[in-house]
TrEMBL record:
Residues 24-138 form the Nudix hydrolase domain. It holds the Pfam family NUDIX. InterPro entries: NUDIX_hydrolase-like_dom_sf, NUDIX_hydrolase_CS, NUDIX_hydrolase_dom. PROSITE patterns: NUDIX, NUDIX_BOX. It comes from Nonomuraea diastatica. PANTHER family: GDP-MANNOSE MANNOSYL HYDROLASE, MUTT_NUDIX FAMILY PROTEIN. Its cofactor is Mg(2+). Gene3D superfamilies: Nucleoside Triphosphate Pyrophosphohydrolase. Keywords: Hydrolase. It comes from the Bacteria. GO terms for molecular function: hydrolase activity. This is NUDIX domain-containing protein. Signal peptide: none annotated.
Amino acid sequence: MTSGWTRVADVELPDGRHLGHRLVRTAPGARVVVTDGHDRVLLIWRHRFITDTWGWEIPLGRIDEGEMPIAAAAREVEEETGWRPGPLRPLLSVQPLNGLSDSLHHVYRAESATRVGPPADPAHDPGRRLLLPDLPDL
């Protein structure tokens, strides 16, 4: 699977005007909301170079060619956090950048996780668990 591309399309608006609209094609993604019995969620403190900002994120990754979305979701959580999620339950599939990108993201939920070691990629924070009520304050 290719990593993606960007193009400009000639779009005709309802009033007949034309504009160049950017299209971004990316690989589909899978993410998991991992919670536990204490109202906590597994998040990653991560730097994003495009905006040069740090922020909390739910583990997310690309679905490899031929890979089932649910398998990609479990793999990405473990690679990015060092936690293996419990049984996954589908929540929704969504186009997070609808109108700009056609990247379909499959979102799952796990109500448990087991620590299996450090993240596979040293660039990732080791994963942190936060109390859900504190999230709006972040």
